[in-house]
Amino acid sequence: xxxxxxxxxxxxxxxxxxxxxxxxxxxxxxxxxxxxxxxxxxxxxxxxxxxxxxxxxxxxxxxxxxxxxxxxxxxxxxxxxxxxxxxxxxxxxxxxxxxxxxxxxxxxxxxxxxxxxxxxxxxxxxxxxxxxxxxxxxxxxx
Length: 142
Hints:
By secondary structure, this protein is mostly helical.
């Protein structure tokens, strides 16, 4: 997939470890959970004096892969676009789009308003302007 997952959600992975994994091409819960422990330790650059529980990190990652229905998902290394500057898209909608595999303007421009509505699950009292999101995505790739 073109979208990395938020590895910061994995228990035991902070911002530094998360960035090291992304820089190494690891971007999904499944990948973290299935890496050989020695390789994971090397990628995280864990030192002998650090008490890092790799078993717990991998168990958390596998659990997240299962709960997000993303077992077997592998990140292709594509850098995601930042959707938050688009009118009406904040952190929550951006994350929902990424989780659905929509993380570039080009990918967004190829889906329908109905698909956006299904992915974003906006509350009944607030309907985003999905048509405008699609227009803005087209503008970004033009």
